[in-house]
Design goal:
transmembrane, globular, Cytochrome b, two-stranded antiparallel ribbon, mainly alpha, Cytochrome Bc1 Complex, Chain C, transmembrane helix, 4 strands, 2 domains, membrane
Length: 442
């Protein structure tokens, strides 16, 4: 499926000349004709949605950079000037600010889909690993961008996160000084954050090219989770265009409608009100929290009482994703045919929401107000801190314990022998849960 022969034929003299020197048109034409599994559902459209989000963020970010001033005494005022005095500036700023949230919504759905359908399994490990690199760069870019408006939450968020880096033994302090540009957050820090925030999206774009290249090489996964042998390519696949370009286009339109609803009707719903207050190093906000899409990792950070341990847990929550292809011991890709693992996956999704909710609460706030008088809910047992610790424990147990153990002990359901046979034959031939041949191993 990934090594199909090129069908592109140059039509004009210019195309022939270009094709012998830089076959970029051939590459695009071959990608449009790429044999793609015919059973991809709408969960597979979020890759195209993410590309739209990335391009939107880059374009709006370039325009905003033309008017932004990375100086602690003028940054907040420059953002307000963009909103009030620049033609269309309010729209560009709201698109960029809400675009970050839309980017993370699509990213989390895209990653959960890959987790559910086993898209990280061989031979697609590099696709998953590059995707994790993109995710890490996206988190870094979002954090750096959150600091630029130089509001109260921007400043204190930078203060908290950069201090955490200083907790790393031996190398933490030099990295902290380099990142801040001095002993405290000041003009040098804002300049560094602005430069890195401008640079990283282009690094993400380069990783996306590698991501697509790896996908083109290894082939697309599908909801059934079986590899498509060459002899069944014509029966189990369709050309990417027009079948999936139309499907992706329709999904993009629906996504942009949701995007537009936030931009035009509730542009500040996903932000924090304190960021409309100019940064004041002498006044600490009552509750310092990051943007909503970083709250689960912030909750994991706070779940560990030791500062350095919290930093390790937070970065470990991302690092464990990189080794996921080797943690899952099951021979079956898709959780459609893994009923036990499907239950644990649904619990994992619920726990992720719980972590996000806990990350936005005060650690010592009561989970059940008014229940502190009961012995069971007395003291810390009624706090979000303990709920966060339980959720954090399940997060790591899901990857490090549940996946390896369930993969070895679970009895999967029978999987189809191909994509088309279950549909064309009213049930079709069923293969063994553990395929015998390497070509169908999945």
């Amino acid at each position: 499926m990934s090594d199909h022969e090129s069908t592109y034929v140059p039509k004009s003299g210019f195309e022939k000349w270009l094709d012998t020197r830089l076959p970029i048109i051939r590459f695009g034409a071959d990608y449009m004709a790429l044999p793609t599994p015919r059973n991809l559902n709408y969960w597979y459209t979020f890759g195209a949605i993410l590309m739209v989000c990335l391009l939107t963020q880059i374009i709006t970010g370039i325009v905003l950079a033309m008017h932004y001033t990375p100086n602690t005494s003028m940054a907040f005022a420059s953002v307000e000037r963009i909103m009030r005095d620049v033609n269309g500036g309010w729209l560009i700023r709201y698109v960029h600010a809400n675009g970050a949230s839309m980017f993370f919504i699509a990213t989390y759905i895209h990653m959960l889909r890959g987790l559910y359908y086993g898209s990280y399994k061989a031979p697609r490990e590099m696709i998953w690993i590059i995707g994790c690199v993109i995710f890490f760069l996206l988190i870094a870019t979002a954090f750096l961008g959150y600091v630029l408006p130089w509001g109260q939450m921007s400043f204190w968020g930078a203060e908290v996160i950069t201090n955490l880096i200083g907790a790393i033994p031996m190398i933490g302090e030099p990295i902290l000084i380099w990142l801040r540009g001095g002993p405290s957050i000041d003009n040098a820090t804002l300049n560094r954050f602005f430069s890195l925030h401008y640079l990283l999206p282009f690094a993400i774009l380069g990783c996306v090219v590698l991501h697509v290249w790896a996908l083109h090489t290894s082939g697309q996964n599908n909801p059934v989770g079986i590899l498509i042998p060459k002899e069944r390519t014509t029966k189990d696949t369709v050309p990417f265009h027009p079948y999936y370009t139309v499907k992706d286009g329709f999904a993009i339109i629906l996504f942009l409608m949701m995007f537009a609803a936030f931009v035009f009707f509730m542009p500040n719903a996903l932000g924090h009100a304190d960021n409309y207050i100019p940064a004041n190093p002498l006044q600490t906000p009552p509750h310092i929290v990051p943007e909503w899409y970083l709250l689960p990792f912030y909750a994991i950070l706070r779940a560990v009482p030791d500062k350095f341990g919290g930093v390790l847990a937070m970065f470990g929550a991302i690092a464990v994703l990189f080794i996921l292809p080797w943690l899952d011991t099951s021979k079956v890709r898709s959780m459609r045919y893994r009923p036990t693992m499907k239950v644990f996956f649904l619990i994992f999704v619920f726990v992720a929401f719980v972590l996000g909710w806990c990350g936005g609460q005060l650690p010592d706030a009561p989970v059940v107000p008014g229940m502190a008088s009961f012995v069971l809910f007395d003291g810390e047992l009624n706090s979000f801190l303990w709920l966060t610790r339980l959720a954090t424990a399940y997060y790591f147990a899901f990857f490090l314990i549940i996946m390896p153990v369930v993969g070895l002990r679970e009895t999967p359901l029978p999987i189809p022998a191909s994509i088309s046979e279950p549909v064309l034959t009213g049930g079709g031939a069923m293969a063994a849960a553990v395929p015998a041949s390497p070509e169908k191993k999945g």
